[in-house]
Protein backbone atom coordinates (compact mmCIF):
# COMPACT_ATOMS: atom_id res chain seq x y z
CA UNK A 1 0.00 0.00 0.00
CA UNK A 2 1.27 3.42 -0.90
CA UNK A 3 2.19 5.62 2.07
CA UNK A 4 2.77 9.33 2.46
CA UNK A 5 0.50 12.32 2.07
CA UNK A 6 1.09 14.78 -0.78
CA UNK A 7 1.30 18.46 0.14
CA UNK A 8 -1.92 20.38 -0.09
CA UNK A 9 -2.22 22.66 -3.06
CA UNK A 10 -4.47 25.67 -3.41
CA UNK A 11 -5.52 24.52 -6.83
CA UNK A 12 -5.76 20.93 -7.95
CA UNK A 13 -3.97 20.08 -11.16
CA UNK A 14 -6.07 18.98 -14.06
CA UNK A 15 -4.76 15.43 -13.92
CA UNK A 16 -5.19 15.12 -10.18
CA UNK A 17 -7.76 12.74 -8.68
CA UNK A 18 -9.34 15.09 -6.11
CA UNK A 19 -12.16 14.35 -3.66
CA UNK A 20 -13.63 17.13 -1.50
CA UNK A 21 -14.72 15.71 1.85
CA UNK A 22 -14.24 18.41 4.50
CA UNK A 23 -17.27 20.04 6.13
CA UNK A 24 -15.36 23.01 7.47
CA UNK A 25 -11.81 24.24 7.81
CA UNK A 26 -11.73 23.82 11.57
CA UNK A 27 -13.97 20.79 12.09
CA UNK A 28 -12.82 17.30 12.94
CA UNK A 29 -14.85 16.07 10.01
CA UNK A 30 -12.90 18.41 7.78
CA UNK A 31 -9.60 17.09 9.10
CA UNK A 32 -10.64 13.50 8.56
CA UNK A 33 -12.08 14.35 5.16
CA UNK A 34 -8.88 16.12 4.18
CA UNK A 35 -6.86 13.07 5.21
CA UNK A 36 -9.16 10.75 3.28
CA UNK A 37 -8.94 12.97 0.22
CA UNK A 38 -5.15 13.01 0.35
CA UNK A 39 -5.07 9.26 0.88
CA UNK A 40 -7.24 8.71 -2.21
CA UNK A 41 -5.16 11.18 -4.23
CA UNK A 42 -1.96 9.42 -3.22
CA UNK A 43 -3.42 6.00 -3.94
CA UNK A 44 -4.75 7.12 -7.33
CA UNK A 45 -1.31 8.37 -8.37
CA UNK A 46 0.76 5.51 -7.03
CA UNK A 47 -1.58 2.54 -7.53
CA UNK A 48 -4.75 3.17 -9.54
CA UNK A 49 -5.38 -0.57 -9.70
CA UNK A 50 -5.45 -0.80 -5.93
CA UNK A 51 -7.83 2.15 -5.75
CA UNK A 52 -10.13 0.40 -8.20
CA UNK A 53 -10.13 -2.69 -6.00
CA UNK A 54 -11.20 -0.59 -3.01
CA UNK A 55 -13.95 1.18 -4.95
CA UNK A 56 -15.17 -2.12 -6.37
CA UNK A 57 -15.34 -3.57 -2.87
CA UNK A 58 -17.27 -0.52 -1.66
CA UNK A 59 -19.79 -0.95 -4.47
CA UNK A 60 -20.35 -4.58 -3.54
CA UNK A 61 -20.88 -3.58 0.08
CA UNK A 62 -23.41 -0.91 -0.93
CA UNK A 63 -25.41 -3.35 -3.06
CA UNK A 64 -25.30 -5.85 -0.20
CA UNK A 65 -26.85 -3.34 2.19
CA UNK A 66 -29.59 -2.48 -0.32
CA UNK A 67 -30.42 -6.16 -0.79
CA UNK A 68 -30.68 -6.62 2.97
CA UNK A 69 -33.46 -4.07 3.45
CA UNK A 70 -36.79 -5.85 4.13
CA UNK A 71 -38.55 -4.63 0.96
CA UNK A 72 -35.80 -6.07 -1.29
CA UNK A 73 -36.95 -9.66 -0.73
CA UNK A 74 -40.34 -11.37 -0.78
CA UNK A 75 -39.63 -13.40 2.36
CA UNK A 76 -40.53 -11.99 5.80
CA UNK A 77 -37.72 -9.95 7.32
CA UNK A 78 -34.45 -9.28 5.53
CA UNK A 79 -32.17 -11.63 3.62
CA UNK A 80 -29.17 -13.04 5.45
CA UNK A 81 -25.91 -11.16 5.14
CA UNK A 82 -24.20 -14.08 3.39
CA UNK A 83 -26.96 -14.49 0.79
CA UNK A 84 -27.10 -10.73 0.16
CA UNK A 85 -23.30 -10.47 -0.08
CA UNK A 86 -23.10 -13.46 -2.43
CA UNK A 87 -25.82 -12.05 -4.69
CA UNK A 88 -24.34 -8.55 -4.63
CA UNK A 89 -20.87 -9.85 -5.50
CA UNK A 90 -22.30 -12.00 -8.27
CA UNK A 91 -24.20 -9.02 -9.70
CA UNK A 92 -21.43 -6.41 -9.47
CA UNK A 93 -18.88 -8.93 -10.75
CA UNK A 94 -21.35 -9.84 -13.56
CA UNK A 95 -21.17 -13.52 -12.72
CA UNK A 96 -24.67 -14.96 -12.34
CA UNK A 97 -24.13 -17.58 -9.65
CA UNK A 98 -26.99 -17.50 -7.15
CA UNK A 99 -27.87 -19.01 -3.78
CA UNK A 100 -31.55 -18.00 -3.91
CA UNK A 101 -34.13 -18.00 -6.71
CA UNK A 102 -33.55 -14.63 -8.38
CA UNK A 103 -37.03 -14.50 -9.90
CA UNK A 104 -39.04 -15.25 -6.75
CA UNK A 105 -36.82 -14.27 -3.81
CA UNK A 106 -36.27 -10.63 -4.77
CA UNK A 107 -38.94 -7.97 -5.16
CA UNK A 108 -39.14 -5.42 -7.97
CA UNK A 109 -36.91 -3.14 -5.89
CA UNK A 110 -34.42 -5.97 -5.43
CA UNK A 111 -34.40 -6.59 -9.17
CA UNK A 112 -33.71 -2.89 -9.81
CA UNK A 113 -30.79 -3.01 -7.36
CA UNK A 114 -29.42 -6.09 -9.14
CA UNK A 115 -29.79 -4.45 -12.56
CA UNK A 116 -27.91 -1.35 -11.40
CA UNK A 117 -25.19 -3.49 -9.84
CA UNK A 118 -24.84 -5.46 -13.06
CA UNK A 119 -24.72 -2.31 -15.19
CA UNK A 120 -22.07 -0.58 -13.10
CA UNK A 121 -20.05 -3.75 -12.70
CA UNK A 122 -20.22 -4.47 -16.41
CA UNK A 123 -18.86 -1.09 -17.36
CA UNK A 124 -16.07 -1.51 -14.83
CA UNK A 125 -15.36 0.68 -11.85
CA UNK A 126 -12.19 2.05 -13.43
CA UNK A 127 -14.13 3.14 -16.51
CA UNK A 128 -16.91 4.59 -14.36
CA UNK A 129 -14.37 6.56 -12.29
CA UNK A 130 -12.91 8.01 -15.47
CA UNK A 131 -16.36 8.88 -16.79
CA UNK A 132 -17.12 10.80 -13.58
CA UNK A 133 -13.83 12.66 -13.91
CA UNK A 134 -14.68 13.46 -17.54
CA UNK A 135 -18.10 14.81 -16.54
CA UNK A 136 -16.56 17.14 -13.93
CA UNK A 137 -13.49 18.41 -15.73
CA UNK A 138 -14.61 17.89 -19.35
CA UNK A 139 -11.36 16.17 -20.08
CA UNK A 140 -9.16 13.47 -18.65
CA UNK A 141 -5.97 14.16 -16.75
CA UNK A 142 -2.96 11.87 -16.76
CA UNK A 143 -4.01 9.95 -13.67
CA UNK A 144 -7.46 9.20 -15.03
CA UNK A 145 -6.06 8.26 -18.42
CA UNK A 146 -3.67 5.84 -16.78
CA UNK A 147 -6.51 4.47 -14.67
CA UNK A 148 -8.70 3.80 -17.67
CA UNK A 149 -5.83 2.48 -19.76
CA UNK A 150 -5.22 -0.20 -17.13
CA UNK A 151 -8.68 -1.61 -17.78
CA UNK A 152 -8.99 -0.95 -21.51
CA UNK A 153 -5.47 -1.59 -22.80
CA UNK A 154 -6.11 1.41 -25.03
CA UNK A 155 -3.69 4.10 -26.09
CA UNK A 156 -3.72 7.00 -23.64
CA UNK A 157 -4.82 9.46 -26.27
CA UNK A 158 -7.88 7.36 -27.14
CA UNK A 159 -9.29 6.95 -23.64
CA UNK A 160 -11.63 9.93 -23.83
CA UNK A 161 -13.20 8.63 -27.06
CA UNK A 162 -13.36 5.15 -25.58
CA UNK A 163 -15.33 6.32 -22.55
CA UNK A 164 -17.92 7.99 -24.77
CA UNK A 165 -18.11 4.83 -26.86
CA UNK A 166 -18.69 2.74 -23.73
CA UNK A 167 -21.78 4.76 -22.83
CA UNK A 168 -23.09 4.95 -26.40
CA UNK A 169 -22.53 1.27 -27.10
CA UNK A 170 -24.19 0.18 -23.87
CA UNK A 171 -27.24 2.40 -24.33
CA UNK A 172 -27.76 1.46 -27.96
CA UNK A 173 -27.18 -2.27 -27.50
CA UNK A 174 -29.33 -2.56 -24.39
CA UNK A 175 -32.12 -0.46 -25.93
CA UNK A 176 -32.22 -2.66 -29.02
CA UNK A 177 -32.13 -5.84 -26.94
CA UNK A 178 -34.94 -4.54 -24.73
CA UNK A 179 -37.19 -3.96 -27.74
CA UNK A 180 -36.33 -7.36 -29.21
CA UNK A 181 -37.02 -9.21 -25.95
CA UNK A 182 -40.21 -7.22 -25.40
CA UNK A 183 -41.72 -8.72 -28.54
CA UNK A 184 -41.36 -12.21 -27.06
CA UNK A 185 -42.01 -11.46 -23.39
CA UNK A 186 -45.31 -9.62 -23.99
CA UNK A 187 -46.95 -12.96 -24.76
CA UNK A 188 -45.91 -14.63 -21.50
CA UNK A 189 -46.12 -11.75 -19.00
CA UNK A 190 -49.39 -10.75 -17.32
CA UNK A 191 -48.92 -7.06 -18.11
CA UNK A 192 -46.99 -4.80 -20.45
CA UNK A 193 -45.15 -3.15 -17.54
CA UNK A 194 -43.99 -6.56 -16.29
CA UNK A 195 -42.89 -7.56 -19.79
CA UNK A 196 -40.98 -4.29 -20.18
CA UNK A 197 -39.24 -4.79 -16.83
CA UNK A 198 -38.25 -8.35 -17.69
CA UNK A 199 -37.05 -7.24 -21.13
CA UNK A 200 -34.92 -4.42 -19.75
CA UNK A 201 -33.38 -6.65 -17.08
CA UNK A 202 -32.69 -9.37 -19.66
CA UNK A 203 -31.04 -6.82 -21.96
CA UNK A 204 -28.76 -5.53 -19.18
CA UNK A 205 -27.90 -9.07 -18.09
CA UNK A 206 -27.21 -10.21 -21.66
CA UNK A 207 -25.04 -7.32 -22.82
CA UNK A 208 -23.06 -7.28 -19.58
CA UNK A 209 -22.67 -11.07 -19.68
CA UNK A 210 -24.13 -11.31 -16.18
CA UNK A 211 -26.13 -14.54 -16.36
CA UNK A 212 -29.03 -13.35 -14.18
CA UNK A 213 -32.61 -14.20 -15.20
CA UNK A 214 -35.75 -12.97 -13.42
CA UNK A 215 -38.24 -15.00 -15.47
CA UNK A 216 -39.91 -17.52 -13.15
CA UNK A 217 -39.64 -20.33 -15.73
CA UNK A 218 -36.11 -19.34 -16.74
CA UNK A 219 -34.79 -19.44 -20.29
CA UNK A 220 -35.59 -23.13 -20.79
CA UNK A 221 -38.93 -22.16 -22.30
CA UNK A 222 -37.04 -20.45 -25.15
CA UNK A 223 -34.69 -23.32 -26.01
CA UNK A 224 -36.03 -23.42 -29.58
CA UNK A 225 -37.00 -19.76 -29.89
CA UNK A 226 -34.68 -17.97 -32.32
CA UNK A 227 -36.25 -14.59 -31.47
CA UNK A 228 -34.89 -14.84 -27.92
CA UNK A 229 -31.84 -17.09 -28.22
CA UNK A 230 -30.22 -15.37 -31.21
CA UNK A 231 -30.25 -11.85 -29.66
CA UNK A 232 -28.72 -13.33 -26.51
CA UNK A 233 -25.98 -14.94 -28.61
CA UNK A 234 -25.24 -11.70 -30.48
CA UNK A 235 -25.40 -9.55 -27.35
CA UNK A 236 -23.11 -11.95 -25.51
CA UNK A 237 -20.51 -11.85 -28.27
CA UNK A 238 -20.54 -8.04 -28.50
CA UNK A 239 -20.15 -7.72 -24.74
CA UNK A 240 -17.50 -10.43 -24.56
CA UNK A 241 -15.05 -9.11 -27.16
CA UNK A 242 -14.52 -5.87 -25.23
CA UNK A 243 -15.07 -2.16 -25.79
CA UNK A 244 -11.60 -1.46 -27.27
CA UNK A 245 -12.23 -4.03 -29.99
CA UNK A 246 -15.76 -2.77 -30.64
CA UNK A 247 -14.53 0.82 -30.93
CA UNK A 248 -11.53 -0.03 -33.10
CA UNK A 249 -13.54 -2.19 -35.50
CA UNK A 250 -16.37 0.36 -35.74
CA UNK A 251 -13.91 3.14 -36.57
CA UNK A 252 -12.17 1.03 -39.23
CA UNK A 253 -15.01 -1.19 -40.43
CA UNK A 254 -14.01 -0.90 -44.09
CA UNK A 255 -10.30 -1.03 -43.41
CA UNK A 256 -9.42 -4.22 -41.48
CA UNK A 257 -5.74 -3.50 -42.08
CA UNK A 258 -6.06 -0.62 -39.62
CA UNK A 259 -7.35 -2.88 -36.86
CA UNK A 260 -4.99 -3.07 -33.91
CA UNK A 261 -3.11 -6.24 -33.10
CA UNK A 262 -5.26 -6.55 -29.99
CA UNK A 263 -8.45 -6.48 -32.08
CA UNK A 264 -7.14 -9.02 -34.57
CA UNK A 265 -5.94 -11.40 -31.86
CA UNK A 266 -9.23 -11.10 -29.98
CA UNK A 267 -11.51 -11.63 -32.97
CA UNK A 268 -9.52 -14.45 -34.56
CA UNK A 269 -8.99 -16.32 -31.30
CA UNK A 270 -12.60 -15.79 -30.23
CA UNK A 271 -13.79 -17.10 -33.60
CA UNK A 272 -11.55 -20.18 -33.44
CA UNK A 273 -12.65 -21.01 -29.89
CA UNK A 274 -16.30 -20.50 -30.85
CA UNK A 275 -15.93 -22.90 -33.78
CA UNK A 276 -14.25 -25.50 -31.56
CA UNK A 277 -16.99 -25.06 -28.95
CA UNK A 278 -19.77 -25.63 -31.48
CA UNK A 279 -18.18 -28.88 -32.65
CA UNK A 280 -17.41 -30.14 -29.14
CA UNK A 281 -20.83 -29.32 -27.62
CA UNK A 282 -22.51 -31.09 -30.54
CA UNK A 283 -20.28 -34.16 -30.27
CA UNK A 284 -20.58 -34.46 -26.49
CA UNK A 285 -24.30 -33.71 -26.06
CA UNK A 286 -26.00 -34.51 -29.36
CA UNK A 287 -27.38 -37.87 -28.19
CA UNK A 288 -27.88 -36.96 -24.52
CA UNK A 289 -31.67 -37.36 -24.02
CA UNK A 290 -31.62 -34.92 -21.09
CA UNK A 291 -30.14 -32.10 -23.20
CA UNK A 292 -29.72 -31.92 -26.99
CA UNK A 293 -30.97 -35.46 -27.59
CA UNK A 294 -34.49 -34.53 -26.54
CA UNK A 295 -34.81 -31.73 -29.11
CA UNK A 296 -35.67 -31.69 -32.81
CA UNK A 297 -33.13 -30.79 -35.49
CA UNK A 298 -33.64 -27.01 -35.52
CA UNK A 299 -33.78 -26.81 -31.73
CA UNK A 300 -30.60 -28.89 -31.43
CA UNK A 301 -28.76 -26.56 -33.78
CA UNK A 302 -29.88 -23.45 -31.91
CA UNK A 303 -29.15 -24.92 -28.47
CA UNK A 304 -25.71 -26.05 -29.64
CA UNK A 305 -24.84 -22.57 -30.91
CA UNK A 306 -26.26 -21.02 -27.73
CA UNK A 307 -24.23 -23.19 -25.35
CA UNK A 308 -21.10 -22.87 -27.46
CA UNK A 309 -21.29 -19.07 -27.04
CA UNK A 310 -22.37 -18.48 -23.44
CA UNK A 311 -19.92 -20.60 -21.34
CA UNK A 312 -16.96 -18.25 -21.84
CA UNK A 313 -18.76 -15.19 -20.51
CA UNK A 314 -22.50 -14.78 -19.98
CA UNK A 315 -23.42 -18.02 -18.23
CA UNK A 316 -26.97 -17.96 -19.58
CA UNK A 317 -28.43 -21.36 -20.40
CA UNK A 318 -31.53 -22.80 -22.04
CA UNK A 319 -30.58 -26.33 -20.95
CA UNK A 320 -29.98 -27.73 -17.47
CA UNK A 321 -26.20 -27.78 -17.11
CA UNK A 322 -26.57 -30.35 -14.33
CA UNK A 323 -27.94 -32.83 -16.90
CA UNK A 324 -24.91 -32.51 -19.19
CA UNK A 325 -22.22 -35.18 -19.37
CA UNK A 326 -19.19 -34.74 -17.15
CA UNK A 327 -17.01 -34.69 -20.27
CA UNK A 328 -18.99 -31.63 -21.36
CA UNK A 329 -18.45 -30.06 -17.94
CA UNK A 330 -14.70 -30.50 -18.34
CA UNK A 331 -14.72 -28.91 -21.80
CA UNK A 332 -16.80 -26.00 -20.51
CA UNK A 333 -14.32 -25.69 -17.62
CA UNK A 334 -11.57 -24.99 -20.14
CA UNK A 335 -13.67 -22.48 -22.10
CA UNK A 336 -14.73 -20.64 -18.94
CA UNK A 337 -11.13 -20.43 -17.74
CA UNK A 338 -10.09 -18.77 -21.02
CA UNK A 339 -13.02 -16.35 -20.80
CA UNK A 340 -13.73 -13.33 -22.99
CA UNK A 341 -11.77 -10.41 -24.38
CA UNK A 342 -9.67 -7.94 -22.43
CA UNK A 343 -11.60 -4.95 -21.04
CA UNK A 344 -14.83 -6.82 -21.67
CA UNK A 345 -17.65 -7.94 -19.43
CA UNK A 346 -16.29 -11.48 -19.68
CA UNK A 347 -13.91 -12.97 -17.14
CA UNK A 348 -11.24 -15.67 -17.20
CA UNK A 349 -7.63 -15.15 -18.20
CA UNK A 350 -8.86 -13.53 -21.48
CA UNK A 351 -8.64 -14.75 -25.05
CA UNK A 352 -5.67 -12.50 -25.86
CA UNK A 353 -3.75 -14.04 -22.97
CA UNK A 354 -4.50 -17.49 -24.37
CA UNK A 355 -3.54 -16.35 -27.87
CA UNK A 356 -0.19 -14.92 -26.71
CA UNK A 357 0.61 -18.15 -24.85
CA UNK A 358 -0.27 -20.24 -27.90
CA UNK A 359 1.84 -18.03 -30.17
CA UNK A 360 4.77 -18.19 -27.73
CA UNK A 361 4.59 -21.99 -27.69
CA UNK A 362 4.40 -22.05 -31.49
CA UNK A 363 7.41 -19.73 -31.77
CA UNK A 364 9.39 -21.92 -29.40
CA UNK A 365 8.45 -25.05 -31.36
CA UNK A 366 9.64 -23.40 -34.57
CA UNK A 367 12.82 -22.15 -32.98
CA UNK A 368 11.87 -18.51 -33.61
CA UNK A 369 13.52 -15.88 -31.46
CA UNK A 370 10.43 -13.65 -31.30
CA UNK A 371 6.71 -14.20 -30.76
CA UNK A 372 4.92 -12.76 -33.78
CA UNK A 373 1.36 -12.28 -35.03
CA UNK A 374 -0.13 -10.46 -38.04
CA UNK A 375 3.23 -9.00 -39.02
CA UNK A 376 3.92 -7.61 -35.56
CA UNK A 377 6.35 -8.69 -32.84
CA UNK A 378 4.87 -9.24 -29.39
CA UNK A 379 7.17 -7.84 -26.65
CA UNK A 380 8.72 -10.32 -24.23
CA UNK A 381 7.16 -8.53 -21.25
CA UNK A 382 3.68 -9.16 -22.69
CA UNK A 383 4.47 -12.87 -22.89
CA UNK A 384 5.59 -12.78 -19.25
CA UNK A 385 2.36 -11.02 -18.29
CA UNK A 386 0.34 -13.70 -20.08
CA UNK A 387 2.22 -16.43 -18.22
CA UNK A 388 1.74 -14.60 -14.92
CA UNK A 389 -2.01 -14.13 -15.48
CA UNK A 390 -2.49 -17.77 -16.39
CA UNK A 391 -0.45 -19.08 -13.48
CA UNK A 392 -2.16 -16.77 -11.00
CA UNK A 393 -5.59 -17.78 -12.29
CA UNK A 394 -4.74 -21.48 -12.14
CA UNK A 395 -3.40 -21.06 -8.60
CA UNK A 396 -6.59 -19.36 -7.40
CA UNK A 397 -8.78 -22.02 -9.03
CA UNK A 398 -6.68 -24.84 -7.57
CA UNK A 399 -6.63 -23.35 -4.08
CA UNK A 400 -10.38 -22.65 -4.04
CA UNK A 401 -11.16 -26.14 -5.34
CA UNK A 402 -9.04 -27.74 -2.64
CA UNK A 403 -10.67 -25.66 0.12
CA UNK A 404 -14.26 -26.32 -0.99
CA UNK A 405 -13.63 -30.04 -1.44
CA UNK A 406 -12.39 -30.11 2.14
CA UNK A 407 -15.51 -28.25 3.31
CA UNK A 408 -18.06 -30.33 1.36
CA UNK A 409 -18.74 -33.86 0.11
CA UNK A 410 -19.29 -32.88 -3.52
CA UNK A 411 -17.24 -34.52 -6.28
CA UNK A 412 -14.24 -32.91 -7.94
CA UNK A 413 -16.14 -32.40 -11.20
CA UNK A 414 -18.94 -30.52 -9.42
CA UNK A 415 -16.65 -28.36 -7.30
CA UNK A 416 -14.21 -27.56 -10.10
CA UNK A 417 -17.06 -26.43 -12.34
CA UNK A 418 -18.48 -24.05 -9.72
CA UNK A 419 -15.03 -22.69 -8.85
CA UNK A 420 -14.02 -21.95 -12.44
CA UNK A 421 -17.45 -20.44 -13.08
CA UNK A 422 -16.90 -18.09 -10.12
CA UNK A 423 -13.32 -17.20 -11.09
CA UNK A 424 -14.26 -16.63 -14.73
CA UNK A 425 -17.38 -14.66 -13.65
CA UNK A 426 -19.40 -16.91 -15.93
CA UNK A 427 -22.31 -18.02 -13.77
CA UNK A 428 -23.05 -21.49 -15.09
CA UNK A 429 -23.74 -24.01 -12.34
CA UNK A 430 -24.25 -27.73 -11.95
CA UNK A 431 -26.79 -26.91 -9.25
CA UNK A 432 -24.74 -27.19 -6.07
CA UNK A 433 -24.13 -23.50 -5.29
CA UNK A 434 -27.22 -23.03 -3.13
CA UNK A 435 -26.40 -26.24 -1.22
CA UNK A 436 -22.91 -25.11 -0.23
CA UNK A 437 -22.20 -24.24 3.42
CA UNK A 438 -21.58 -20.59 4.26
CA UNK A 439 -17.82 -21.11 4.48
CA UNK A 440 -17.75 -22.44 0.91
CA UNK A 441 -19.96 -19.57 -0.27
CA UNK A 442 -17.44 -17.11 1.18
CA UNK A 443 -14.70 -18.80 -0.86
CA UNK A 444 -16.74 -18.29 -4.04
CA UNK A 445 -17.46 -14.68 -3.08
CA UNK A 446 -13.74 -13.95 -2.80
CA UNK A 447 -13.09 -15.78 -6.05
CA UNK A 448 -15.76 -13.82 -7.94
CA UNK A 449 -14.27 -10.57 -6.68
CA UNK A 450 -10.73 -11.52 -7.63
CA UNK A 451 -11.89 -12.89 -10.97
CA UNK A 452 -13.68 -9.67 -11.89
CA UNK A 453 -10.91 -7.38 -10.72
CA UNK A 454 -8.69 -9.36 -13.04
CA UNK A 455 -5.51 -11.31 -12.50
CA UNK A 456 -3.38 -8.60 -14.05
CA UNK A 457 -5.00 -5.82 -12.03
CA UNK A 458 -4.69 -7.90 -8.89
CA UNK A 459 -1.01 -8.51 -9.49
CA UNK A 460 -0.42 -4.80 -10.09
CA UNK A 461 -2.39 -3.84 -6.98
CA UNK A 462 -0.46 -6.20 -4.72
CA UNK A 463 2.93 -5.02 -5.95
CA UNK A 464 4.26 -2.11 -3.87
CA UNK A 465 6.39 -0.73 -6.61
CA UNK A 466 8.38 -1.66 -9.68
CA UNK A 467 11.85 -2.87 -8.79
CA UNK A 468 14.57 -1.23 -10.83
CA UNK A 469 17.89 -2.95 -10.51
CA UNK A 470 21.01 -0.98 -11.29
CA UNK A 471 23.07 -4.15 -11.57
CA UNK A 472 21.92 -7.18 -13.58
CA UNK A 473 23.04 -10.58 -12.36
CA UNK A 474 24.96 -12.97 -14.62
CA UNK A 475 22.80 -15.21 -16.80
CA UNK A 476 22.64 -18.99 -16.51
CA UNK A 477 20.19 -21.35 -18.22
CA UNK A 478 18.51 -24.00 -16.01
CA UNK A 479 17.37 -27.31 -17.50
CA UNK A 480 13.69 -27.24 -18.50
CA UNK A 481 11.69 -30.43 -19.07
From TrEMBL:
Question: Keyword Cytoplasm: yes or no?
Answer: no
What are the UniProt keywords, alphabetically?
A: Cell membrane, Hydrolase, Ion transport, Membrane, Transmembrane, Transmembrane helix, Transport
Cellular component aspect of the GO annotation: plasma membrane
Q: What is its EC number?
A: 3.6.3.14
- The answer on whether this UniProt entry bears the keyword Transmembrane helix reads yes
Q: Where in the cell is it found?
A: Cell membrane
Which parts of the chain span the membrane according to its record? 51-69, 81-100, 112-136, 161-186, 192-215, 227-247, 267-286, 334-362, 382-403, 442-464
What does the record say about its membrane topology? Multi-pass membrane protein
Q: Name one GO molecular function term.
A: monoatomic cation transmembrane transporter activity
Biological processes per GO annotation: metal ion transport
Pfam families the record matches: TrkH
Please give the InterPro entries that the UniProt record associates with this protein: Cat_transpt
| Record PANTHER family | KTR SYSTEM POTASSIUM UPTAKE PROTEIN B, TRK SYSTEM POTASSIUM UPTAKE PROTEIN TRKG-RELATED
Q: What is this protein called?
A: H(+)-transporting two-sector ATPase
Q: Which organism is it from?
A: Arcanobacterium haemolyticum (strain ATCC 9345 / DSM 20595 / CCM 5947 / CCUG 17215 / LMG 16163 / NBRC 15585 / NCTC 8452 / 11018)
